[in-house]
Specification:
With 303 residues, the protein is α+β, with helices and mostly antiparallel strands. Helix content is 15%, strand content 33%.
Amino acid sequence: LQCIEMTALSVPFLLLLKFGWAGAFSMAAGDGTELSLQPRSFVQITKPFEDATTPADRLPASFISTWPTWVLDQDGNLIRIPDDQSGEGFVSPASIDELWQPIDLKRPQMKPALGLHIRSGIIRHVMPALDLSYDGMYRNRGMCSVPRAFTWMEFAALGGLDEWDGFLLQISSREKGEDGAWKQLSSSSGKAISEAVERATLALAESPPDELGEGSHILHVVLDDDSEDLETPKSSHDLRVTLTNSENTEAEGILEVAVSTTMSGSDSQYLPEVYKPLYNDESLKNPLYEKFKQRQEEKTQES
């Protein structure tokens, strides 16, 4: 499941949540121009050091979109992001194409992370990832709120931890529709990637939840490199994260999503109970939208 086709401000965002619809969608720009997005059908798997002409393996996007996502935070806590399999009324939040930002919420904090595909308790693939939250809370903010990479790297292609020392995770953005250069927002430092691999390996070896030993899961290991939290880019921007070997200019892993504004969740009559603590939290409300609502109410009263 991914995200359904819609025009911004035409269908309430959480109406989609209620019915659990999914697919690709298009959003409207501020001037009313519709911005269409062609959904990706596959996730590409790269193998470092192989001939560039070797065909890349790939997985159907629909196959991986509902895999559970976990977070290993900087304090060593292993947390599963709630989803449609949790039985609490949440929806599946992952998308390889879009990042939805409800207009009535502040933009969440953004931390660089290393993503790992774990199959039956074993690391199979590695990818760039992001941890988006409000001080570690509300990682599932609805559909398309957990971005997922569309290019992964085969984990077994590298050997010991020292081989990961040359890898960098870089975050950049650019205005949607522009073909210009990406503006770099952050870059990992030192041995952040190899340290993330080591932390994940230890967490899986010690006492992981039984769930991680069965089927496929995605684990986001938040980098422990003392970098400052970033704010998610504004709507109408593309957000890109790459995993790159310093000896190779081509990215081995790529996450790239379009950031789009969606309707207010707090104003929706279809808001599921499980999301009400998020949308009713006064500290997370978008002050610009609150001022807009106030002006609209004043105009209504005057008329």
